[in-house]
Amino acid sequence: MNNPTTSACYEIRVHGRLSQTFLGAFPGLRAEIQGADTLLTGTLPDRAALHGALAQIEALGLELIELRRCDGTPVSGRVRGRRRQG
Question: What angle do CA 80, 71, 75 make, to 5 degrees?
């Protein structure tokens, strides 16, 4: 079983092309535009940081498309996203 307090690399795909303003909400994550989506990639120090990034996605009203660890390990638990209104 993986230790939840160790750092891990994550790929977080959100719908839309995020502006520099939105990207500023995710320090330490690299952004790559892929079609109509933005892929955020980087190492997060622990689960609290992962949950913080997911909470930021929710707070900004972004739609979470996919979340996975870079090593291909499935991320356990259910993650919900929603499309930004406007």
Answer: 25
